[in-house]
Amino acid sequence: MKIADVKANAFAMPLTSPAFPPGPYRFVNREFLVITYRTDMDALRAVVPEPLEVTEPLVKYEFIRMPDSTGFGDYTESGQVIPVTFNGQRGGYVHSMYLNDHPPIAGGRELWGFPKKLASPVLDTEIDTLVGTLDYGKVRVAKATMGFKHRPADQAAILAGLAAPNYLLKIIPHVDGTPRICELVRYYTSNVTLKGAWTGPASLELHPHALAPVADLPVLKIESALHYITDLTLDLGTVVHDYLAA
């Protein structure tokens, strides 16, 4: 293979059989369970990187069921998003993500910098209850429940949230183990179709784990719960801060 061929075909690894295809990445019938809870403000400040700012002690714990996604297939995801501001604009910092499918793990980390790790999340309906669970190996680290479609939710507020920017800390090491890329990345979702949205009573349990430390942001009080279904496009990102720049 010629050098020019390597450069022309270099998109993702492995070179001759990439783990994921080029975008755009479209999701159909993407189902969310999002429980917003109050936590310890000092714990938030310890994990949110500058220049992002934490303004209130809130965390959004998410379970996301993705049955139809371009190139990534059928999978489920779970993790924590922290409301932040950047230059005065409200958005969300993606703090942790656990999922059960290799292509979006590889693509999410390599393209955007999503903090993805392999685990076993599930989002399902048990009789009259929406249930989300996250197991890391054989160990249960999170469980959420919500009354199934108890009341309609504010669709305008959900759409506004989906239109807001999200932030990631992208880290890729050099071959000597030092950081080669360390960037704050901003991304958006677009072309959103909200197919239904509901709210209701909810619960959330987080359990300590050395390698899936979701409980390091403890649940002090549940503020709200949302269940909604969308079609959307996950746009590629832009770098808004380079931590290695002189």
TrEMBL record:
What reaction does this enzyme carry out catalytically?
Answer: acetoacetate + H(+) = acetone + CO2
What keywords is this UniProt entry annotated with?
Answer: Decarboxylase, Lyase, Schiff base
State any single GO MF term.
acetoacetate decarboxylase activity
Give the EC number(s) listed in the UniProt record. Answer: 4.1.1.4
Q: Which InterPro entries match?
A: Acetoacetate_decarboxylase, Acetoacetate_decarboxylase_bac, ADC_dom_sf
At the top level of its lineage, which domain of life is listed?
Bacteria
Quote the catalytic residue positions: 116 (schiff-base intermediate with acetoacetate)
Purpose of the protein: Catalyzes the conversion of acetoacetate to acetone and carbon dioxide.
Family under the similarity heading: Belongs to the ADC family.
Provide the protein name: Acetoacetate decarboxylase
